[in-house]
Protein 1
Amino acid sequence: MYRFLIVVEKANGNYSAYSPDLPGCIATGKTREEVTRNMHEAIEMHVRGLLEDNLPIPEPHSFAEYIAVSL
């Protein structure tokens, strides 16, 4: 099993997502749930393509944290 971080961003009227560890692997959707589902499918297709082409699967190195700032 592979686990990849995805970043979801609110755009004008929809959402977009990408994975920092899989350059070029992106998805969009009208809701957060839809973009997450679409990104899951995009990552599966991306990884399958790498395997079919006998290319290495990138090791996930990205992580995310929230930083709280008191002003």
Note: The chain has one helix and three strands.
Protein 2
Amino acid sequence: MVYKPSIGEKVFNLFNILFMALMIFICFYPFWYCVTCSLSKQADTASLMLLPNGFTLATYKDVLAREAIQKGYLVTIFVVVVGTIINLIMTTIAAFLLTRKNFAIRGFLTWMMLFTMYFGGGMIPTYIVYTQILGLEGSILVLLIPGCISVYNMIVMRTNFNGIPTSLEESVKVDGGNDMHVLWHIIIPLSKAVISVMVLFYGVGHWNSWFNASLYLQGTEIQPLQLRLREILILGQTAAEGDAGDVSTMAENIKYATIIVATLPILLVYPVIQKYFVKGVMIGAVKG
């Protein structure tokens, strides 16, 4: 017997399709708007642009030829790669330790980490610690060392580790292995999904980070790409307010081209680890 949906189900399905199409447009259009403005010879930013007004790649050539953008790219790539590696190592070690029942201070350390999720010292005390005590001002380490562990990410990874059968760990120890063997040969190979999600979370966080750089790296040559982008956006806004004709139009086009140049690389990462993403995120929602 062939199932025939009722009129109510058809209307409901149609509503769902239209609603999702609207949501896709709302989410995608801002990015497409930046693309069309960056490729236009004269971007009419006051109108709803669906196609470029003329076509030119001059803005991208101008952006990519700027030494500040090139240096910003190198700094950001270094921070993303090295910072994410540090994050993964520290988060994995912390999550693994908190799953060891024979770890004496497991409960105390867990509560101390949870405490930092709800309470912080504030901007001024943090600034004093970083600059006067740790001496990180003007150093690339200020983008790597602070926040090397996200407590939320650590909890997600710990939950994943807790879900691995203890019989596998016992088999390693029967063969003479220790906790390091358990971590390297059992835990990590069975945690590729959650590790991929951690790479995504930490990598995107480093790529988009600019606030710490604006506080501690002003006037240096190691400013990341997002801070360079912020400066260009401010200069573009200044030029637009000055309304200097072609200069203002060029500044607008360069602003949008810089946004695309700074955004596109990280967007290309999502398809690579998409198959792990949903599985890794749901791990932390099953049990705690």
Note: The radius of gyration is 24 Å.
Protein 3
Amino acid sequence: MKIKVIYTAALAVLFLDATYGGALKKSFTKDEQSKNLDIGGQNASSEEKDNSEPKEQVSKSSMEETNSKRAADSKPNVSSNSTERKKIVGDPIVLRINGKKEYRRSQILADMKAIPPQMVQGVSPDKLFEILRDQKSSTYLMIEQAKKAGLDHTKEFLDKQNQVTNELLVRELLIKELSPKVENESALKARYTKYLIEFKKGKEFKIYHIMVATEKEGNDILASLEKGDDFSELAKSKSSAPSKDKGGEEGYIPIDLMPPQVKDKVILLKVGEYTKDFVKTENGYHIFKVADIRDTTPQKYEEALPMLKQVLMHEEMVKLIERLEKQAKVEKFNEDGTPVGPMKEKLASPSV
């Protein structure tokens, strides 16, 4: 079962990375204040800020250890229990198809680095190498078969290919134009100074959250809470929200960042109280508890970096689009024929 999962993960890594959804993941970090409280597409803040590299990324030390181990004393298909190992010299061919298509060891090792570490726990490097080598073979054969069937010339395929090409071009332009500005230390500190000036005090609530799929499940949980059962324990055992492993804790969330339907319920609660009816969304039924209420304070510079980068990215993107539209003399009109307002009025800046 683990091998099948790894194989699927390998396919996902190789194919999905070509899309533009992760275009700026190395340059721009999403604001963590809109990450944790997911109730049907509307998010709010968490107390914890994660400025580390993505968890999916294999650490340099772990991969270097794997690579050095392979380079020093193993063939990809030799069992880890073998008492005899041959030294690998250079970058040998590890796969040849139809006598012409070849893949080298370095290509498979590169794929190994792209696999999330949690997907390869308990799998030896040799076995993982074999899986990825075989995946190269099956992928190539399927692509060739698709070409033989003429699927690469259909209108549907060409339309999708054109869409992906355009998205990749946008990705490259944004990286080229925005990365230097968003990563500029002076610009970030200047934006942080502006953030401190504009900061307005308010209230933030430490929220615990339980999400279930049906109204019956929600009523059962409310009944358990009425009997005195612990909210966090119920969250761990019953909730389907991402915060379940933390007992439902979502952290401190400023009231003005809460989705309206959550805000309307939570703002009426005192510390220790929970909602006696549900917030219903397309994701299910939600129950919230307030564990603490405090005044908001400005984030420290390091904590605010993800937010600052997001705001700078947005501001620079607006400038880029406005510049390009002026160069092209773009004119936009509403349905009734009246002129559309400036771009800055259409793209509201993210809240800081």
Note: Residues 210 and 287 are 5 Å apart (CA to CA).
